[in-house]
Design goal:
The complex is a heterodimer.
Chain A: H1 2-8, H2 12-50, H3 57-82, H4 90-106, H5 111-135, H6 140-159, E1 163-165, H7 169-172, H8 186-204, H9 206-216, H10 218-223, H11 228-254, E2 256-258, H12 265-275, H13 287-306, H14 311-345
Antiparallel strand pairs in A: 1-2
Helix pairs in contact in A: 2-13, 3-8, 3-9, 3-11, 3-12, 3-13, 4-5, 4-6, 4-11, 5-6, 5-11, 8-9, 12-13, 12-14
Chain B: H1 13-42, H2 49-74, H3 82-99, H4 105-129, H5 134-153, H6 165-168, E1 174-175, E2 178-179, H7 180-198, H8 200-210, H9 212-217, H10 222-248, H11 259-269, H12 281-300, H13 308-338
Antiparallel strand pairs in B: 1-2
Helix pairs in contact in B: 1-12, 2-7, 2-8, 2-10, 2-11, 2-12, 3-4, 3-5, 3-10, 4-5, 4-10, 7-8, 8-10, 11-12, 11-13, 12-13
Classes of the chains: A mainly alpha, B mainly alpha.
Chain lengths: 346, 344
């Protein structure tokens, strides 16, 4: 880390960016979330024009059901990206925890114990990521590509090519029934509660300010007395546990598990977080933005599915949204730069 | 970085640094030989010519993609769109052959490379002009290209019958026992390796990755160089798509899915630093070969192939940790030799 920081800090560009960031931070953030809210409203209008039942409670249930696990994994990832790191192993951990739960259950363990074991596996996997990134100082993108492969590989060893089914119906009902008295899917309800907690931690607690500080200037945060490495370590452990939890929900929802559950979802989770306005460089991002991003992607997918649009087109739309989300905030500056250059040449 | 001369005088510091890094490629080559030897002891069929050909063919695509990915990663960027480009290029070339059966084979390759280069150019332009992180740009491009692929494919499959025989033979024909695929990849690796070692723009890529600000102050046209790296990566991904079609003789919408992470894994195992500034295309290609050798060895020794992914993951982690240890050692050596003022 040290050499990396040393090469980055003396840049006049980053100083410049920080100064501007300080002034425009609040306004800029507000604008991005406002834009997201606008997009969400447009999506809802688009959905309602597709079918009169779009805003019905059944549809709401299905949107929640589809997005729940991805959304839950997006929350710890948001915190991690804000500190300037990344965790690409989330979907593999989802698959591994479901696999562990399924294998133990098939060996006659009580389902609650199997679920607890899955959470422990999540904590262990997160600890591995945390040790490699925070203690040894290895680049998180490379480490978590490694653990992405490793976790999926362990799941493959444990379970492939079998599929485990037969979980108790009292639990698998979360895949077909909403929380009693409401029309919200269990996973979506859990996500909303967790999002409130994450929002409070990030925006109203000292820890949240510490996360932003680490993302903006790691060294300065260190000198300000923030225990950078310890915080990063626990964030990765948290991510592991949450993804394991998402894996349990995913398994119960489908009432079955195979080792390849959720393969490739990591990029969806990353895309949702970034579309929510979280900067890949760290230091910027809000939970509100990520929640809005989840809602937009969920509603848009549902609306397009109801229009019988191929799932492939939905990929294009997600990609374009992602591209727009980074290009627009930088677009003004780029145009100014090009104009400057043209003027200098003239 | 991989100079062909080793002199037995370890006094000159740059040379020692060089030989350290050089050991990386040697180390991977040794690892390949060890895995190969142990497997052959267990199963003598592993050393048969056909088995070796399979090893080379299997690693060819990832090695080819690794060349472009190395150029991009060396500049402190990343290209996640390569897997999608492989899929799209393979299908479009297949579709062209299906409708124009008389189309010359060369035209198929040209279309593939052109298509990949166009996508690479978009990646490069958005990254350098709008100055947005390439991770996000190429992640978006991964989805967009995959989506376009899905719309074009529309549930169909290109089957061997619609591809000219001359094209498919590329997948298994060999010259003096060496598969054509391996020859193509070796030529690309050699050319790219030479360019990155000896050409000015090649050295510029390393300078940009080592210290972007210093590179800009030194007058290196960073934007143009990074753009070129993305262009090459895209073009090679397009070429890999055509070769994918030649190897498998068929392609559907799943072609190339997940390649991006395999490529990055091979590149990192091959000693390319994920934060830019160091690594060689030869290392990346050897990394791809090592991962594929392990893969095939698991099959040959009848250890379940289910172990493959876990071993690849563990190997990747070991490679990253090793790189870290190496760079700490090099940094310490430099510091003790030239004083602390230099580093801070």
């Amino acid at each position: 880390m040290t050499s990396d920081v040393a090469t980055r800090t003396p840049g006049s560009r980053s100083d410049n960016v920080d100064g501007r960031r300080g002034r425009a931070a609040l306004r800029g953030l507000l604008r991005w979330e406002t834009a997201l809210a606008g997009v969400l409203i447009a999506t809802l209008i688009f959905g309602s024009s597709t079918s009169s039942t779009f805003l019905s409670s059944t549809n709401l249930f299905y949107i929640g059901l589809n997005m729940g696990e991805i959304a839950i994994m997006a929350l710890p990832l948001t915190l991690i990206i804000i500190t300037g790191e990344i965790d690409l192993s989330v979907a593999s951990m989802l698959g591994l925890s479901g696999t562990v739960m399924g294998v133990l259950f098939s060996h006659g363990w009580p389902v609650w114990l199997a679920m607890a074991a899955a959470l422990v596996v999540g904590a262990l996997g997160g600890t591995l990521n945390g040790v490699l990134v925070a203690k040894l100082g290895l680049p998180s993108i490379a480490v978590t590509i490694g653990t992405l492969t490793l976790f999926r590989g362990i799941a493959e060893i444990l379970l492939a090519p079998r599929t485990i089914t037969g979980f108790p119906p009292s639990l698998t009902k979360i895949g077909v029934a909403p929380v009693p008295g409401t029309q919200v899917a269990y996973s979506a309800a859990i996500f909303l509660i967790l999002a409130v907690i994450a929002g409070i931690v990030l925006h109203a607690a000292p820890l949240g300010r510490a996360l932003v500080a680490i993302g903006l200037q790691r060294e300065a945060a260190q000198f300000a007395g923030i225990r950078v490495n310890r915080i990063k370590f626990w964030l990765f452990v948290l991510s592991g546990v949450m993804c394991a939890f998402a894996g349990i929900l995913f398994t119960l929802k489908n009432a079955s598990v195979s080792y390849d559950a959720g393969t490739g979802l990591e990029l969806n989770v990353v895309a949702i977080v970034l579309f929510g306005g979280v900067s890949i460089f760290g230091g910027r991002g809000t939970v509100v933005g990520v929640v809005l991003s989840v809602a937009i992607v969920g509603c848009l997918t549902q609306a397009l599915t109801q229009r019988n649009v191929q799932p492939e087109v939905q990929n294009i739309i997600l990609g374009v949204l992602l591209l727009i989300s980074v290009v627009i905030p930088n677009g003004g500056e780029a145009i100014r730069r090009i104009r400057d250059r043209a003027r200098r040449r003239a | 970085m991989s100079t062909a001369v080793i002199t037995p005088t370890p006094t000159a510091r740059p040379r020692r640094l060089e030989s350290l890094l050089r050991a990386r490629e040697l180390g991977i080559a040794l690892a390949i030989i060890v895995v190969f030897g142990l497997t052959t002891l267990n199963n003598h069929a592993f050393a048969h010519a056909s088995s070796i050909q399979q090893l080379l063919t299997g690693a060819a695509l990832i090695a080819l993609l690794g060349v472009g990915e190395t150029m991009v990663i060396v500049t402190r960027n990343v290209d996640l769109s390569v897997g999608s480009v492989v899929g799209l290029s393979a299908y479009i070339v297949g579709d062209l052959f299906k409708h124009h059966h008389q189309m010359p084979v060369v035209a198929g390759f040209a279309v593939a490379i052109g298509l990949g280069a166009a996508i690479g150019a978009i990646n490069g332009l958005v990254t350098t002009v709008a100055r947005v992180p390439s991770l996000v740009v190429t992640l978006a491009m991964l989805y967009i290209v995959r989506g376009i692929d899905g719309v074009i494919v529309n549930g169909t499959t290109i089957d061997p019958g619609s591809i000219p025989q001359a094209f498919i033979t590329f997948g298994y024909r060999s010259l003096l026992g060496i598969p054509w695929l391996a020859i193509i990849v070796a030529v690309v690796v050699a050319a790219a390796g030479y360019a990155m070692r000896s050409f000015r723009w090649g050295r510029d890529l390393y300078a940009i990755g080592s210290n972007p600000d210093a590179a800009a102050l030194a007058g290196i046209p960073s934007g143009r160089r990074v753009f070129t790296a993305f262009l090459v990566s895209g073009a090679l991904a397009g070429l890999a798509g055509a070769l994918f079609l030649a190897i498998h003789a068929q392609v559907d919408v799943t072609g190339g899915i997940g390649y991006e992470l395999s490529v990055i894994a091979a590149v990192v195992v091959g000693g390319v630093a994920i934060f830019g500034g160091s690594g060689t295309v030869l290392g990346a290609a050897l990394g791809a070969l090592l991962l594929n050798t392990i893969n095939q060895a698991l099959v040959a020794t009848k250890i379940s192939s289910f172990w493959n992914e876990a071993i690849a993951g563990a190997l990747l982690l070991a490679a990253i940790a090793f790189d870290r240890w190496l760079s700490l050692r090099v940094a310490r050596n430099l510091r003790s030799a030239e004083g602390a003022h230099r580093d801070l």
